[in-house]
Amino acid sequence: MSGRVVVLGGSGFLGSHLCDQLLARDDEVVCVDNFSTGRRANVAHLADHAGFALVEADISAGIPVDGSVSGVFWQWGARAPATAWNSPTATAPGS
């Protein structure tokens, strides 16, 4: 089964691997990230994939994805517990 899937935080370590796997099973993937903790390099290899779209956005202002989707994965996570503890507003969604 293939569908259109949104991966929030898709440029992070886990999110980027999830994007890889979803594309491998023929899903269309919309990766949404503000790059506060993720890296463009993690999804750079997907840039030319016909089923991949990268949207730079802060989801606290809404999720800028038009049309229907079959699923949404939220893969946001601080790089390390110490990072979140020492700077909670810098690593929290929407900051």
In brief:
With 95 residues, this protein is of the alpha/beta class. It has a single domain (4-91), classed as NAD(P)-binding Rossmann-like Domain (Rossmann fold).
Mean pLDDT across the residues is 86
Secondary-structure element string? EHEEEHH
Instruction: Give the DSSP E fraction (strand runs of 2 or more residues).
Output: 15-25%
CATH C-level label:
Alpha Beta
User: Treating each run of at least 4 consecutive H or I residues as one helix, how many helices?
Assistant: 3
Query: Which of globular, elongated, flat, extended, rod-shaped describes the shape?
Result: globular
Structural class: alpha/beta
Q: How large, in whole angstroms, is the Cα Rg? A: 13 Å
What is the fold-level CATH name, i.e. the topology? Rossmann fold
CATH homologous superfamily caption = NAD(P)-binding Rossmann-like Domain
**Separation of termini?**
35 Å
The CATH architecture classification is 3-Layer(aba) Sandwich
Unreliable stretches (pLDDT < 50, length at least 5) are: none
Neighbour order of strands in the largest sheet? 3-2-1-4
- The total number of structural domains is 1
The share of residues in helices is 10-25%
The counted number of beta strands is 4
Largest sheet: 4 strands, parallel
